[in-house]
Amino acid sequence: MLQTRDIIWGLLLIGCAAAIQVEITPTQGVISIGDSKFFLCEVVGDAKDIDWYDPRGEKIDPNRQDILVTRSELTSVLTIYHASLDSAGFYKCVAKNGDEEAEATVLVEIFQKITFQDVPSPQEFNEGDDAEIICNVVSSPQPVVYWQHKGSVINYKEDVRLRLLSNNHLQIRSIKKTDEGMYMCEARVMTRGELDLRPIKVIVNVLPTIRTRQSEVNATGDVGSSALLACDADGFPEPTVTWTYNNIVLETGDKYSLNEDGSELVIKDVIKVDEGDYTCIAKNKAGEKREEVSLNVFVQAKVTYLNNQSATEFDDEVTMTCEASGDPTPTISWSFENREFTEGEQASWTRPEVYESHDRNIVVRSHARVSSLVLKNVQFTYAGQYLCTASNSIGQDSKSMYLEVRFAPKILGEVAVYTWEGNPANISCEVEAYPGASVVWFSDGAQLPNSNMTNVKIYNTPTASYLEVTPDSQNDFGSYNCTATNVMGTESKEFLLIPADVPSSPKIQTVEPFSSTAVVVFMEPESFGGVPIIKYRVEWRLPGRDWVSRHYSAEEYMTRITIAGLKPETTYEVRMFAVNGKGEGDSSPPSTFKTEPVRFSVEREPAAPKLAIKNEKGNSLKVSWIKQDDGGSPIKHYLIKYKAKHVSDWKPEVRVPHSSDYAVLNGLDWDTEYEVRVVAENQQGKSKPGVISFRTLMEPTAVPGGSGLGTGAIVGILIVVFFMLLVGIDVTCYFLNKCGLLMCIAINFCGKAGPGAKNKDIEEGKAAFSKDESKEPIVEVRAEEAQTQNQEGVAPTEPNETTPLTEPEPAVADPPSVVVNTLPETNSLPASQPNPKTTSSPTKATTEKSSPQNSPKANPQPDVGNLVDLSDTPKVAPSSNITPSQHDPAKAPNITQSKDSQVDGLKEDAAQTPSTETTTPAPTDGKTVKDDNTKGESEVKDETAEVKTVPNEAPQANGNESKA
Q: Do the beta carbons of residue 376 and residue 360 sit within 8 Å?
């Protein structure tokens, strides 16, 4: 079927056989800068010449590089390569045949796509500076630029600090750390509906801050000791720390030593002239800060004599002597390499006995200011540096000496060496000997090198001899002998040179695909072939296509390789080869994977916060942190947990608001190493934990804030208190039980009737008491943990960061409270007879910890009595104030029950009765009554969102405090 255009051209050819017609396809062209396009010029009729003319009217040369013209019989093709702005204009196609001529034109328009020319990322600024975020973008026509931050288009009216400059840059006046994050520069061309964008990471640097650990440091001089000066610096980025003394920068050398980050300065061999002020300087991109640390130099003990010694292996013994001076007289200790001699091997000046080690080869003898270390049955391993340390109450001094042991050669080194033909291999014969030994190599009984083996070389060092063998054939593999000789003897050892093989194939375990890359996780080959693997070759392909190959240098413990240049959402095959010096091994089985689709996201998890520790009052510490990169999404909160390093369980995790930058840990164990982890969380997830370790202080031997009383005054106070206690007990016994010293005086001097007149009443009371269990003495058991357990129906929770983990110690100046055991042996009394001390003491019952979790050492047997606090005697409660629960026999606690039973018995009363009650005697029948008017009801509080400091207060007089 003929096309319409062909019919028309046919009619034109019939009607006008001599006319020439020209048509250009396409009739117009729009080209982006850098793109290419062609135009077809078709001629109807006979045309001898077909030429193209550029916009300037010049005929286009077929040999031009940027524009190509190709012609066939009746057509000519104009191709524009890599168009530029100069390529725009009208192009003309002219056909000629003698005097006849026809032409056609086409308009070519050139435009420029959105192009980002200069968009650096990251861009860094100092906190407080006027920041200008650069985003240079061009297009034709000019683009409109929008800025986004944290996923939202910036509204310049909401924050007057933000302004869009005429060059499309974003200005932030007085930039803050909170302005840090990912920004998006988006360009749009409205006429074409074209847009493009670029993410820009903005980093805000913060001026350093410095905290000196000690403003003054004491050191001992003139004895070769060292002093440590330390300051901790914070800032962003991490500041560099330097030290100066008298305006001279200190560097690591013979006199000074700096740790990796410069925060710790060690001054070696301290002498008096080292005293003075040292300046710690922290510097980063934002600026610098300075703090001074003062060094005070004192004098200490000193080692005055220590000489090197020599011996011969297998000697009976060798003696090393160390002398020291100092006041007070120092003690001397010895150490060798990483070994410090134990107490069984040490002698102090106050114990001049002779001590021996367990194997009896090491003996320490001490006398006055001299210590001798005796080594018996000398071995070559005894050679080395020994350290003698003299110490007294001021400090210590150490010096070292070298023990030289002469011994016959001992040959070390790997027995088997692998190589291949043409590859040199070094056989290492390492020799330990004193004095030094001469080394000779042999092969098949012949000394090397010789005329039969010209492919060997020998290299000697003071401690080893190396035989380099370049195998020419299989005959060069085999055994080689190394013989070492000195004046003490001779030693020989055989070494094997073994042919190497190619490695076995690695094993691909998994492939972790991404949009344009994939991480291949693999296992190293089971066999290396005797020589190290130098590289891996990875091949990947589309199924059924050719393999794409790339080599990756092998590294130690290498198990992951990343391949790039992949297409999103595409299935690939991958396989691996291991290569050593011998060659390439077999391929691993192919593994198939599919890449992920492209995902556009600029938000991610935040960076780990930077932590710091500061000692608070007592056994509390303050953990502070500095927020790092928030990942482009606001921090929601921080999660804190900690534990002592010697235990495996963490304390309950605590969540604090995003605005918090510290937390206080209370109630820590004294002199214990702890680990703290702080995690930041945003909408995208949790950061890696910021981790810091610290050790709490030693428990103080004296109570802070004490009265300062002397020992004699304290003893006198205790005697008076004890005497008053005896008088109180005797008066109580007189009025309640008609016994005691006052009763004897009343009977003998005042004619009072003795207690025998009331025997009948007592027997009746016993009978009534045995029938009514409610008449048993009521002893309060108050434990806040137990109340919480009973009310909630679950075990008490683990204390959080606001909970003291140790009981506060009472201050010395507080009035002493005497505590007695009300039931020392309940099984020694009749079941119906109340304990006299319980029923006769008009005092408040002290609290007990009834929770098994909080009292691991508590005796669960029923014969453990409750404690009564005699420090505060309440008044007798009127009978009208007795609560109903006190008259209910079912609710009266049984003294003979276990502590667990006592806690259960309080469950029903916890909501009705106060947590602190008193027991008062009835004057007629000796019963004890609870007083419900006392204070001290405990409250169970929910865990707070923010951890605050809980001050350590002195306990109240009743001694009923429990852990918060």
A: yes
